[in-house]
Amino acid sequence: MLAIYSLWHREMVRFFRQRNRVFGAIGQPIIFWILFGAGLGASFRPGGTGGYLEYFFPGTLALILLFTAIFSTISLIEDRKEGFLQSVLVAPIPRVSLVLGKVLGGTSLAVLQGLMFYLLGPTIGLPLTISSMLAVTAVLTLIAFGLTCVGFCIAWRMDSTQGFHAIMSVFLMPMWLLSGAFFPAEGAPAWLAWIIRLNPLTYGVAALRRILYLQSGLEPTGIPPLWPSIGVTVVAGLLTFGLAVKLAQGRTVGGGS
Hints:
Number of helices: 10
Shape: globular
Number of domains: 1
Distance between the termini: 26 Å
């Protein structure tokens, strides 16, 4: 537990000392939300919501979680170059503690920044109550945990941040785009609609959308139900965490021993 707390605390301190990471993780998604919401609001009316700003709000929350998870796990590559990761690996602690400490640090940062953006909900008519805050926090935690585990799995085998950004461009960003965060599956070509349905992040975004509109009187259409979406998100998070632990228990760390 001490190792888990120490690694979690280190992630928190490192993040808030680097203010450019804070801006990059939350500033860019907010700009996307405003620009896309203003540009597509007049021509794109998703079913079950009041407009594109409302529709894109949960997608922006998911994007903030994705960016924060990615930025937090990139630190694995930096830790390896600085020798910190090697010192942790030879310490008498189980590898699961290493993984859990890093993942919980990234998850905490992602949820914190997601909640900061969620406070803008009343500007588009979403109610902000204690019960809604608790429900949104729970769903954000599930999504952020899974995304941070995915980032950990990718960063563990990487030797450079350039390679990590390449993976993000060709895998992680398309995963977000094809999750129903940016556009609904309704009306998409059949093959694209199937990709969206098979994407685990689709169910995290659907659960978040359901929770956000639970008290607003609006009923999102064309997305999976709440509890099956939460179930898929939990299972995906556990599977990616198990994969992260398995990778950490191996002998190879980004090409080194």
